[in-house]
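Re: [ENG-882] Designed sequences occasionally contain unexpected residues at chain ends

Forwarding the minimal case from QA. Structure tokens:
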């Protein structure tokens, strides 16, 4: 589903990513560990096409991403990628269901279909019946579940999670990682978790550590 080969990235003369190679199959969830500032978030950004690489290849579902223009990359992110962030990025003025529905609204999906899929997505993450709730009524763990439902409602082929458990207590963190892994497998997506947490990484299918000279299997 996803293959990186010889990926290099520099910022202001400093090498951030060097000779990064990675393969992720459909239904597989891999973790990338690393110290702060080593380039974990940058790696997700280049995979998502948000930052250009200086050299190397990134192939997603048979398409070479480095050859696409900005418009094509934006469509790819909208239609095939799902994102989960540490800070949740839940809009406080929208209901839980409306937050989850945003990816489908951007695609112009019919309202009846949106409402049905939002209910299903929330039920899948254990939040059935909370469609009309305001974000302020939910706990941190529940808000991260909303973020997962939003990332998966569009049935993405690639799920990118950037420190999704960083603001959660250990038990909620464990539940969130189990949920992400289960949902990635169920949808047949490829998943990448970027984290500094050894405990979170241990729950994934494979683990890598990002170093100055690339990725190393751990």
């Amino acid at each position: 589903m996803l293959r990186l080969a010889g990926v290099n990235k520099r910022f202001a003369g400093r090498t951030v990513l060097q000779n990064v190679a990675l393969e992720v199959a459909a239904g597989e969830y891999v973790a990338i560990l690393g110290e702060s500032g080593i380039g974990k978030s940058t790696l997700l950004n280049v995979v998502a096409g948000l930052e250009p690489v200086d050299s190397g290849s990134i192939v997603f579902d048979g398409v070479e991403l480095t050859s696409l223009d900005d418009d094509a990359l934006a469509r790819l992110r909208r239609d095939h990628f799902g994102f989960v962030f540490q800070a949740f990025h839940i809009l406080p003025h929208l209901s839980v269901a409306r937050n989850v529905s945003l990816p489908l609204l951007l695609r112009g999906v019919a309202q009846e279909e949106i409402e049905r899929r939002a209910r299903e997505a929330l039920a899948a993450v254990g939040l059935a019946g909370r469609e009309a709730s305001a974000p302020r009524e939910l706990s941190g763990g529940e808000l991260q579940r909303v973020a997962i439902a939003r990332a998966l409602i569009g049935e993405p082929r690639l799920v990118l999670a950037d420190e999704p458990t960083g603001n959660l207590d250990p038990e909620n963190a464990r539940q969130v990682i189990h949920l992400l892994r289960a949902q990635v497998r169920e949808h047949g997506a490829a998943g990448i978790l970027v984290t500094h947490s050894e405990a979170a990484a241990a729950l994934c299918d494979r683990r890598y550590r990002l170093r100055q000279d690339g990725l190393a299997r751990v």
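QA comment: On inspection the terminal residues look reasonable. The chain has a mean pLDDT of 91. Proposing we downgrade this to a documentation issue.
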